[in-house]
Design a protein that fits this description.
CATH topology of the largest domain: Arc Repressor Mutant, subunit A
CATH class of the largest domain: Mainly Alpha
Structural class: alpha+beta
Shape: globular
């Protein structure tokens, strides 16, 4: 299976885990069965961390591979760029190289700064509206950051779901019948349809008195399958989720409650699409989402979401980012196993192909895009909204975008027919106009923050304002 050839330099993270465990360089080198000079070179970023040592470190210290990658630094740099674009920092000019250095070598200080800025931004908004309220997205952001730290992969839960799948008696690929039979045999629960569920805003409910699992009528088969998997996760793996949350979950009670919901959804996705089987199918089909969804009898969105979780140490798939948005540009889900980071403090870029997908419902849109850190991605976008059930039904219009690095693109079917060396095909996208430094973009809706504007009368650009160049 194609894999990225990017070398992993993880010196600061190696030192951090060694110092946290109270080990000398000699002691850690002994545990890894390598020479002291080899470890010293890796800690100084003179040599990359090879895959077999990454696996050994993850197993020895109970870490995920995300601990050693530069993905977190890339996301942290993007957040710093957006924050420093706020007009409150108009007299501050911090080169990108210094931001990257701070994110790499002083991550705790950077996180403290970002936390302080969020508190400042909330207080400004509260004062402007002259009312007291809690920031509604704060728990969601906390959970999003927590999931991102794990690169959207939770090893214990993923393995538990895979083992459960392998123990099921599945006839002719009918996973829904196998799950229903398990719930009936172990818990005495029968499936029933309740026409009041949709009006009450529920997708499933357990009526323990009547021993029924109530589902809405007209529910798509893949949605019913996901609901049954969620229920099994809640009934049988609640203690495992509790252990994960107690050991490493968010501390805020609301964020922890949302994190539990996320883990329940994660388990369901891992049960429907067991890791090894799914990864093998991905390789055989070159990550063709439509082929995989037919093979596993699930939805386009469920396959896309699962593709963003293939980060098992030693058995990684292509690292994708995954986002789900509505037609207004609100980000509903966001996870990334690569360097891609969406805007935290502004709307998404209108040049992104996820917005073009709304004009062609049900069709796949392909795009090569370049972010402001010069990374190039292959993006796959498609609407995933359900159809209306009646004239008065107004289903939410949503679309997803799945993206991988250009270096991994050739391993997917979606690169077919594309000249990956032709940079004229690459669309420049940004983190939202407020933080985007591209002055020549005709889609800009407002000037970049934090820089003086050139409003001279001798020239006029493609937009009626241009930012003066940053001081070197």
């Amino acid at each position: 299976m194609p894999k990225s050839k990017t070398k992993l330099f993880a010196g600061p993270r190696l030192r951090q885990i060694r110092q946290r465990e109270g080990l000398t360089q000699a002691a850690l080198a002994g545990l890894l069965d390598i020479s002291l000079s080899y470890l010293n070179q890796m800690e100084r970023d003179h040599r990359p961390l090879p895959a077999h040592l990454l696996v050994a470190l993850c197993e020895r210290f109970d870490l995920g591979p995300a601990w050693f990658t530069d993905t977190r630094e890339a996301h942290r740099v993007q957040a710093l760029r957006e924050v420093l674009a706020d007009p409150v920092f108009k007299n501050t000019s911090l080169p990108l190289a210094k931001m990257a250095d701070a994110a790499r070598h002083n991550p705790d200080l950077c996180e403290a700064f970002l936390t302080l800025y969020r508190a400042y931004a909330f207080e400004q908004a509260r004062t402007d509206h002259e009312k007291d309220s809690s920031p509604p997205l704060e728990p969601y952001e906390t959970v999003g950051n927590w999931v991102q730290e794990h690169r959207n992969y939770f090893h214990e839960l993923d393995q538990a779901a895979e083992q459960f799948y392998e123990q099921l008696d599945i006839d002719d690929g009918a996973l829904d019948q196998a799950l229903a039979s398990h719930l009936r045999a172990r818990y005495g629960l029968e499936i029933d349809r309740d026409i009041t569920m949709e009006a009450r805003g529920l997708v499933w409910r357990i009526d323990r008195q009547r021993q029924r699992i109530l589902l809405p009528p007209n529910q798509p088969p893949e949605s019913t399958l996901f609901c049954l998997a969620q229920i099994i996760g809640q009934l049988e793996y609640n203690q495992l989720m509790t252990r994960i949350l107690r050991r490493e979950g968010p501390r805020d009670s609301n964020a922890q409650a949302l994190a539990r919901v996320f883990l329940g959804n994660y388990f369901a996705g891992a049960l429907l699409l067991p890791y090894d089987r799914f990864l093998q199918c991905a390789g055989q089909t070159r990550y063709d989402i439509d082929c995989m969804r037919r093979h596993f009898r699930v939805s386009f969105e469920q396959v896309s979401h699962r593709l963003g979780t293939l980060q098992r140490p030693g058995h990684e798939g292509i690292p994708f980012y995954f986002l789900k948005l509505d037609i207004a540009g609100n980000i509903l889900k966001s996870f990334s196993a690569n360097r891609f980071s969406q805007s935290r403090f502004g709307g998404p870029c209108p040049l992104w192909n996820v917005f073009r997908a709304f004009a062609t419902p049900g069709q796949v849109q392909i795009q090569l895009s370049q972010t402001t850190d010069d990374s190039i991605y292959l993006n796959v976008a498609r609407t995933v909204s359900r159809e209306g059930l009646a004239y008065g039904d107004r289903p939410r219009q949503t679309a997803i975008v799945l993206g991988c690095r250009l270096s991994d693109a050739a391993g997917t079917v979606y690169a077919r027919g594309l000249d990956l060396e032709d940079r004229s095909l690459v669309v420049p996208i940004g983190p939202g106009c407020r933080a985007c430094l591209r002055d020549d973009c005709s889609h800009r809706s407002l000037p970049v923050s934090g820089r003086m504007l050139d409003t001279g009368n001798d020239a006029r650009g493609v937009v009626p304002y241009r930012a003066l160049p940053e001081k070197s």
